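Shipment paperwork, digital attachment
Item: protein structure file
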Amino acid sequence: MNGLYQNFEYKVRIFSPEGIRVKGDDLTEKIAQKLEVESNKLAKNGWQILSLVPTVSSEGSVSKLLVTFQRSIK
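Attachment content:
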């Protein structure tokens, strides 16, 4: 039965743009760049994105993401 279940470990990161924000700014590109860079770094060690949840919304745009990564435990 041990072969049916796989063990995982998890890592949670918060992504938000750095710097001063002005009301109404579209932060999509800045958040996407940070997420891409960090995801590629973690992927080299077997991590993959499991879930991505917007956590803070301001003036109709998302300014923070809560991202959960997982990888198999060997």
